[in-house]
Amino acid sequence: LTLISYDPLTLTLSPSRRGRGDIFSLAPFEGEGQGGGGRRQELENGSASRRVIVKWRHDRNRYLPSPGAVMARPASAAPARIDALDLLRGVGIALMILYHLSWDLSFFGYAEVDLFNDPFWLAARTFIVSIFLVASGISHALARRAAIDPQKFLNRFTRILAAAIVVTIATATVFQEGFVFFGILHNLAIASLLIAVFAGLPYWAVALCGAAVIFLGLDVNLSFFDIRQLAWIGFAANPPFSVDYVPIFPWFGATLLGFAFMQLLLGSPGIMGRLEGWKPGGRIPDLLRWMGQKTLLIYLIHQPILFGALWVLDKISVR
Questions:
Q1: Is 3:273 a contact under the CB 8 Å cutoff?
Q2: CA–CA distance, 103 with 114 (Å, rounded to integer)
Q3: Cα 176 to Cα 243: distance, rounded to the nearest angstrom
Q4: What is the dihedral angle through the alpha carbons of 175, 178, 180, 182, rounded to the nearest 10 degrees?
Q5: CA-CA-CA-CA torsion for 129, 130, 135, 140, nearest 10 degrees?
Q6: Positive or negative torsion for Cα 185, 190, 196, 202
Q7: How far apart are CA 12 and CA 18, in angstroms?
Q8: In tens digits, what is the pLDDT along the chain, a chain of 319 residues?
Q9: DSSP states of 143-209
Q10: Residue 214 pairs with which residues in a beta bridge?
């Protein structure tokens, strides 16, 4: 038996007879493998790779399963975290903290930063938001390696939606007319529902849909959508001012591109094995990975801390 790539679950491989010809079957060891008698070999390894491709040598023949054969994870088996994805999120949240600090310094008059018109800051915002949305698409694709647990999905959706509502209320209190009526958290919440429509498509079709969403969001500008009740869709010619505005069009396209990218990688067991096995070392990568695992919490608390500290400093300082 030659193992080419493997699953972290303990597997049972059992050759079995069904009519004429030999076949083999794979099943989690917690249940019985399909088929009858024959030798049984139990394999166990810590890799997080999902695909299992094996060669079984029989005394008379050699059999190679289809490259598309997949050992699906049971719903109870949580996929292992991928450090590279946590690191990506951590970089995103670190850049967002710096971006918001720049905005706060400008708001209190400690720096002159034009975040809404300067090409550099506009590009920086686009880059930071794209990191989070692409990472979200990647996460959705990874989550579908196993059967979706409706309760876990509902809990996650509720947390994000509740956090979005908190942001709306808080910014309405502080910024009034510039409050966040559809920011990045609102986008993430709605995207988690919309992504199900595309989950059954091949990666190239999802990528094309993502590109179409981006194109439409950049090209369609209609004054009919200028009111807040419709501006969240993304077709507004002059959307109401908001300190954070991330409409479905074009931004949902970034989520779809992330989803398609991970779909493509999941079809390449060798690449996925290397990606899942990559463990960056060092204090900074460790800190960024930790931040990537706590993005929602950090997102909610970092701006009140920064803004509050500068507000106190502004009150006690003499300028």
A1: no
A2: 8
A3: 10
A4: 170
A5: 100
A6: negative
A7: 18
A8: 434 333 433 343 444 444 433 333 333 333 333 333 333 333 333 343 334 444 333 433 443 444 433 344 444 445 568 999 999 999 999 999 999 999 999 989 898 888 888 999 999 999 999 999 999 999 999 998 888 889 999 999 999 999 999 999 999 998 888 999 999 999 999 999 999 999 999 999 999 999 999 999 999 999 999 999 999 999 999 999 999 999 999 999 999 999 999 999 999 989 998 998 898 889 999 999 999 999 999 999 999 999 999 999 988 875 5
A9: HTTB---HHHHHHHHHHHHHHHHHHHHHHHHHHGGG--SB-HHHHHHHHHHHHHHHTTS-HHHHHHH
A10: none
* Whether the predicted model's global pTM rises above the 0.90 cut: no
Count of other CB atoms within 10 angstroms of residue 222: 11
Best CA proximity match to 244, nearest among 125, 134, 137, 160: 125
Q: Is there a contact between 52 and 66 (Cβ–Cβ < 8 Å)?
A: no
Q: Fill in the amino acid letter for 309.
A: A
At 54 the three-state DSSP class reads strand
Give the closest residue to 221 by CA, choosing from 208, 230, 211, 229: 230
Cα angle for residues 111, 114, 117 (degrees, 5° grid)? 175
The answer to whether the CB of 73 falls within 8 A of the CB of 79 is: yes
The DSSP code for 74 is: P
User: Six-digit token pair at 153?
Assistant: 């999905």
